[in-house]
Write a sequence for this structure.
C-alpha cells in the first residue's frame, strides 16, 4: 500500500466496463474544495489524537474533542462527531437537544446513562441513542476513564463543544 493520499479506485459497471474514480484522502479540510474542482472526490481523514481537546471545568469535568462538524468541514454536511473522556466519579451535564439525536459508542470504561427517567449500565461496545428533546446524562461509576464517541444528527450542537476562545469561560 502506498503512502500517497491519492487513490484510484476501479469499479465495474453492470455492462462490464471499468470506470476509475479518483479519490483524495485529505487531512487539511481547506484543500478539499480546491481538489474537488479538479475532479477529485474527497475522503476526509481526521486523527483524534491530533485534535485539540479541552477540559470542561467542574462540576461536569470531562475532556471534549470535536472531530467532525460542517461548521469547519463542509464535506461532513449533516454530521457532528467527537469524543468525550469522563474521569471516574464524574458525570456529564444533564441536557437535551431540541431537534438532534445524540448517539454514543462506548470505547472504554464503564458507567451509566440516563435518558429521561430510564437508567442503564454501559460498557465498551454499547451504542446508546438519545432521541431529540430527551434529557440525557452519562455517569462514570467505574474505576477507569469512560471514553465514548458521540455523534449528532443533524449536526449543530457539536459547536458548543469546541474549545473556548482564549480568555473565554465555558461550561457545558
Amino acid at each position: 500500500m502506498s503512502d500517497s493520499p491519492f487513490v484510484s479506485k476501479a469499479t465495474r459497471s453492470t455492462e462490464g466496463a471499468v470506470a476509475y474514480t479518483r479519490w483524495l484522502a485529505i487531512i487539511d479540510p481547506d484543500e478539499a474544495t480546491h481538489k474537488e474542482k479538479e475532479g477529485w472526490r474527497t475522503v476526509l481523514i481526521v486523527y483524534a489524537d491530533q485534535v485539540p481537546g479541552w477540559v470542561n471545568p467542574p462540576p461536569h469535568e470531562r475532556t471534549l474533542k470535536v472531530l467532525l462538524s460542517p461548521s469547519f468541514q463542509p464535506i461532513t454536511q449533516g454530521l457532528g462527531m467527537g469524543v468525550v473522556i469522563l474521569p471516574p466519579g464524574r458525570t456529564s451535564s444533564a441536557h437535551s437537544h431540541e431537534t438532534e439525536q445524540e448517539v454514543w459508542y462506548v470505547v472504554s470504561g464503564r458507567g451509566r446513562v440516563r435518558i429521561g427517567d430510564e437508567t442503564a449500565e454501559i460498557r465498551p461496545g454499547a451504542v446508546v441513542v438519545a432521541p431529540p428533546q430527551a434529557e440525557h446524562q452519562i455517569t462514570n461509576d467505574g474505576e477507569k476513564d469512560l471514553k465514548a464517541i458521540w455523534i449528532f444528527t443533524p449536526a449543530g450542537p457539536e459547536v458548543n463543544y469546541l474549545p473556548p476562545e482564549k480568555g473565554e469561560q465555558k461550561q457545558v
Notes: The first strand starts at residue 6 and ends at 12.
